Amino acid sequence: MTFTTDVPVGEVIHNHLLSCSPDDLLADAARRMQQHHVSSILIVENGQSLGIWTEADARKLDFSDPALLKHPIRDYMSSPVDTVKEDVSLSEIALKFQQLRRRHFLVVDQDETPLGVVSQTDIIRFQGLEHYLCMRNVRSALRNPPLILEDSLSLSEAVKRLKESGRDSAAVQFGSSERYSIITERDIVRWLAEGIHDRYLRDVCVNQLYAVDEETGLLQASNLLKRKGFRHLGVINRQGQLVGILSYGDILDSVEYEYVNRLQEALHSRDEALKASTSHLRLAQRVIEASLDGIIITDSRGIIQSVNPKFTQVTGYSEQEAIGQSTGLLSSGRHSADFYNHMWDALHHSGYWQGEIWNRRKNGEVYPEWLTITAIYDDDGEVSQFAAIFSDISDRKKDEERIRRLAFFDDLTGVANRRLFQDRLEQAIANAHRHQHRLAVLFLDLDMFKRINDSLGHLVGDEVLKIVAGRLAHTVREGDSVARLGGDEFTVMVPEVSSMEGLMILAERINDSICDPIVVGSHELYISTSIGISIYPDDGQSPDELVKNADAAMYRVKADGRGSYHRYTDALHHDSVRELTIETRLRKAIKENVFEIYYQPKVDLAAGKMIGFEALLRWFDQENQQFISPAEFIPVAERLGLIGTLGDWVLNEVCRHLVQWQQDGLEILPVAVNISAQQLMKDNLAETVSRILKMTGASASWLELEVTESCFIPEQADRIALILHELRSEGINISIDDFGTGYSSLSYLRRLPLDALKIDRSFVMHVPDNEEDARLASTIIAMAKGLGLRVIAEGIEDERQLDFLRQHGCHQGQGFMFAKPAPEKQVRSWLAEKWCPVEYCALAASE
Ligand SMILES: Nc1nc2c(ncn2[C@@H]2O[C@@H]3COP(=O)(O)O[C@H]4[C@@H](O)[C@H](n5cnc6c(=O)[nH]c(N)nc65)O[C@@H]4COP(=O)(O)O[C@H]3[C@H]2O)c(=O)[nH]1
Asked: Are 818 and 698 in a shared domain?
């Protein structure tokens, strides 16, 4: 059995230990005990504890013995001494007191050295019995009726009666009165000390018995004993009769230790729990105060009961201003009644609500917060309070908005990016499908934008893009959406198209707005845009398809001359599929080298003589068993960057043939080879040509290079002139192909080292019937002559065309009328037989 508050006895004894020698007189020992207010004295000899003499031992004295005061203490001491070790607990000692019926123990250390004496009084004082004592009354502790002695008894008689009755005290009744005095063991020691011998009680009893009612609580009685310094109290019943004398021993004996122990434990646990909950409460309070989230506690009606400092920081309302107010104080007015109804529904059903809410600060500013509300229930399961925890998410919202913009909007121009456009288009398609209407995608590409970037730098380019995006956004209607897909590619989505005319008007408006001069710094720039249009559901069903087809339509605009718009058609779709097929096969064809050169004779129109050839590349597609026109595959080769390889092969092959013809003794007539714009712009064209001439052994004078007029971009004028001069200096003739389709100015042409100019087939085709073409053709001839250039007409198919050209002095011509392009073998026979076009033969015959 242990007490939860149990302490070792060594900690509570006072170390004032009174000792004497065995030969000391009993009376002297008693005197010393009285002086020092102790109830025992240790008898020590040679450092050894021989015995102990206590107040209880005083009852054994015979006061009728005249020599009593002369006896040495040895004769009366108790021996051996009952000892307890200093580490024994008070509870164990209390039990020992009960079991051995002792009232003192000598406390010794581990070496048996005496440290002090522990008495019953010490136990009661230190053992923490208060909780137990306060539940008992005095009556419950009384063991015996009181020993009442008449005041006429002698001391020796009285001491004898005490000893016989086993009591440590007795009430002394004065006569027949109800007045009592008390004698105790301590009085006997006093008599001894004072040398009082055998007398009558009435003469020596000085202490009146202090009495309490038997219903008095034990704790109260115990406190009274302590306070008054008594060791006994008289106990009277309701009738005023003395029913007992209560001593410390009685109190101790009445204690049921098992019960006390339980009580102590229970109280201890209660104290611990209280301590823990107090510390939890304190901790919770601290957490609430230090919380980085705002916290509001309301009653069940939403009236604010408490708030934390963060609440004040976020809302601007002080604690005093908030407490007692409804939470409506913070309402922003941004949410509908429905919103709050849902919130309360959730709180009543699940006791919990979480979400984003707009509230209003004291200064009127509306801000977003992330709010969690939890209901707090009382013991009956009713909502007693609500705890609301919130954080101001204004910054997070701003970040989210920034991230959203980054994710969905083009950083440079601020219009939607590809992803957002795709989303919007998806939604618009679903909507168009539901309501059975059409929608349109316009794909825009800025013409010549690359030139701006290359020549003026990216910063200027970026400004242009921003201005264009702004103009687009202003030009379209509300509900239409503008996006930048990247580079200089923009899209416009028109979610509902009522008529094709409306769409065309929009495309023209866009073109017009882009055509307005764009001023960036000191530059005034003029650009145009090519617009491809696709329409849902006719030109595509999915976002990808619609964008892809609008893109294809835009390419067609570019091919047709830019600055315009074009709707996607099935034919265009067919074109793009075909282009893709060509792309794949062309790579394979180049790898397998399945090309061939055909030659078309050039004829001197005045003399009717064959004066040269144009080399034309031929590709026989094995898969389809048909020729694919160079007009179709050359642009693809250019786009794929394969034209260099192909062009070199042509030059090489032509030179090889020329040398072969020469070696075979055939007359050599010059051959014109087509040079694409990309080939021309490559820095090393002159170098390549001279390398091929050297390698094959062909002469430069046998070659003529045909450069299309569209190659002459004014910005590159100087560079082109340089390249052509280099070629010219090698001895190579140069002619301009397809003349009339480009925009080269006369002054520019003058600067170029040209030998000849070829009138495009499109002008020759309609002469002489089409007056405008006839006028153009004759002007070109005149102009070429003026510039001192040879003029060659392409695509002469009939006599009327031939006559017209001859009449206007065109020098040379080629066309189906004379001969179609033919393989190298055919050239050999033409050369061998010095072939002359049949028309001229007929002409010669008739002349
Ligand atoms: N309807 C009609 N057509 C006639 C007549 N006379 C000639 N032609 C065709 O007109 C085109 C003349 O060539 P081009 O204008 O240089 O136009 C050429 C040229 O720009 C390009 N090309 C051909 N071979 C090469 C080459 O080796 N390199 C480069 N870069 N381009 C080439 O492909 C274009 C088309 O070449 P082809 O299909 O061979 O078409 C040739 C020729 O077959 C005629 O009386 N009536």
From this structure: yes
pLDDT at 67: 84
- pLDDT above 60: residue 609: yes
Domain total of the chain: 5
271, burial (CB in 10 Å: exposed 0-12, middle 13-18, buried 19+) = exposed
CA dihedral 738, 739, 742, 746 (to 10 degrees): 160
* Ligand 1 center–CA 616 separation, angstroms: 6
Q: Which of 621, 636, 761 to mutate to test the pocket of ligand 1 (most atoms within 8 A of CB)?
A: 761
CATH number, position 841: 3.20.20.450
For residue 148, what are its two tokens? 């009442």
Among 86, 106, 126, the domain boundary falls at 126
Mutation probe of ligand 1 site: the residue of 603, 674, 734, 839 with most atoms within 8 A of C-beta = 674
Ligand 1 mean position to 40 CA, how many Å? 142
363 and 349, same domain (yes or no): yes
**Is there a single domain that holds both residue 692 and residue 804?**
yes
Binning pLDDT at 50, 70 and 90, where does residue 404 land?
Answer: confident
pLDDT digits (tens, 9 = 90+) for 479-520: 899 999 989 999 999 999 887 788 888 999 999 999 889 999
Element (H, E) at 379: none
- Residue from 61, 54, 58, 20 nearest 39 by CA: 54
Global ipTM: 0.96
Range of the domain at 530: 409-568
> 517 with 473, same domain?
yes
Q: How far is the CA of 691 from the centre of ligand 1 (A)?
A: 26
Residues 122 and 195 in one domain: no
Query: Does the model's pTM come out above 0.80?
Result: no
The CATH number of the domain where 348 resides is what? 3.30.450.20
Residue whose Cα lies nearest atom 28 of ligand 1: it is 674
Please, what is the angle between helix 458-475 and helix 500-515, to 10°?
140
Q: Would the CA dihedral through 11, 12, 16, 22 be positive or negative?
A: negative
Q: How far apart are CA 501 and CA 484, in angstroms?
A: 25
Instruction: Give pLDDT tens digits for 208-244.
Output: 899 999 999 988 998 898 888 888 999 999 988 999 9
For residue 588, tell me if it sits in a domain: no
d(CA 180, CA 174): 6
Distance from the alpha carbon of residue 615 to the mean position of ligand 1, in angstroms: 9
Is residue 40 domain-resident? yes
Considering the domain boundaries, does residue 368 fall inside one?
A: yes
DSSP letter at 711 equals: G
Q: Is the peptide bond before 768 cis (omega within 30 degrees of 0)?
A: yes
Nearest to 387 by CA among 278, 306, 283, 285: 306
- pLDDT given at position 715: 66
Q: Which of 653, 760, 794 to mutate to test the pocket of ligand 1 (most atoms within 8 A of CB)?
A: 794
CATH number, domain containing residue 151: 3.10.580.10
Query: Is the domain of 648 the same as that of 797?
Result: yes
Q: Which CATH number does the domain housing residue 515 bear?
A: 3.30.70.270
Atom of ligand 1 nearest to the CA of 676: 30
87-91, 545-549, 726-730, range with the lowest pLDDT: 87-91
Q: How far is the CA of 598 from the centre of ligand 1 (A)?
A: 10
Closest residue by CA, ligand 1 atom 4: 795
Asked whether residue 506 falls in the same domain as residue 645, the answer is no
C-alpha to C-alpha distance for 712 and 743, rounded to whole angstroms: 8
Q: How far is the CA of 675 from the centre of ligand 1 (A)?
A: 12
Query: Which residue among 616, 634, 646 has the greatest number of ligand 1 atoms within 8 angstroms of its CB, and so is best to mutate?
Result: 616
Is residue 595, in this structure, part of any structural domain at all?
A: no
Pocket residues for ligand 1 (CB within 6 Å)? 600, 616-617, 629-631, 634, 647, 650, 674-676, 706, 737-738, 761, 794-797, 814-816, 821
Does one domain contain both 331 and 413?
no
